[in-house]
Amino acid sequence: MDHWQRIETSLAGGKPDRIPVSLWKHFPDDDRDVGMLVEHTLTWQRKWQFDLVKFMPSGTYGVEDWGAETAYEGAWNGARSVVKTVVRDADQWATLRRLDVTKGCYAQQNEALRHVAKALGGRTPLLQTVFSPLTTARKLAGDRVFTDLRCSPDALELGLRTITDVTIEFCLAAVEAGAHGFFFASQMASSRLLSAAEYERFGRPYDLEIFDALQGKVRLNMLHAHGDDIMFPLLAGYPVEMFNWHDRITKPGLRQASTQFHKILVGGLNEHATVLRASPEHVAAEVRDAIDQTNGERLMIGPGCVLPLATPDENIRAVLCAVEAF
């Protein structure tokens, strides 16, 4: 099977020739340059031949055009940090301007994606990375977003309206650039951060508005729920084909999740404790356990989140060998 057939067979509940697999990593600082991001993305995919390419722009691209200052500070996973926020007072949510996604940092991400899409020629599913509006709001305001959510909710919702509109425009431009869908990352759907009622008001409606705008325009979307104690039952109803979360470090595990989400679960690997630090034999055992938990049905082997930069090649190779063996 080719990459598409493998995923589509899994999505339909069938048995592909092997379990699909995809791993992804950041390319810190180089991801600020269109040419370098394209080169790294294609080199990564040509080396490993994953079944899906998760495009890897900097995680702060969505706030820089609004004036956030960011830096790569040496994080083990290659993530970039916001070092100066934009929103420092609740009244500022109303002043967020409607960005032109054909310019600035937003435009750079889709320009890079366009080159990658052309080089891949449609042979491998390509997902642009996009962040939920509430996730972007937190990056714009830092932790004061929680204060505004509870003390100035109407003001925050004005900001979420603008962020959602810009995100939709960016997504539509990404489709034109060649994206087959999106890796939709929510870093706020965690009970450690919000109550379910708070996410129902400030998260879910804006998330679903984006998916509604993409209906009929994409082939595959993957939802990524970041962090511990995620709101899995709330998110399981999202209109996506794939669901990714830190299944090795927070509930639910794959076995339980397969009873709640009936499309493709993406996970099975602890990217830090196992893929970074363990032996290839341990990595292979974790792949086998993931297959056992799901009976190999509607599963894509993947990390709970981005791979550490220092992940050894032999452990990536062990993942690929394991899906072939099992």
From TrEMBL:
GO MF terms here are:
uroporphyrinogen decarboxylase activity
Give the matching Gene3D superfamilies: 3.20.20.210
Specify the Uroporphyrinogen decarboxylase (URO-D) domain's residue ranges.
26-325
Q: Which InterPro entries match?
A: Methanogen_methyltrans, UROD/MetE-like_sf, Uroporphyrinogen_deCOase
Tell me the domain of life.
Bacteria
Q: Which SUPFAM superfamilies match?
A: UROD/MetE-like
* GO biological process assignments: porphyrin-containing compound biosynthetic process
Listed name of the protein: Uroporphyrinogen decarboxylase (URO-D) domain-containing protein
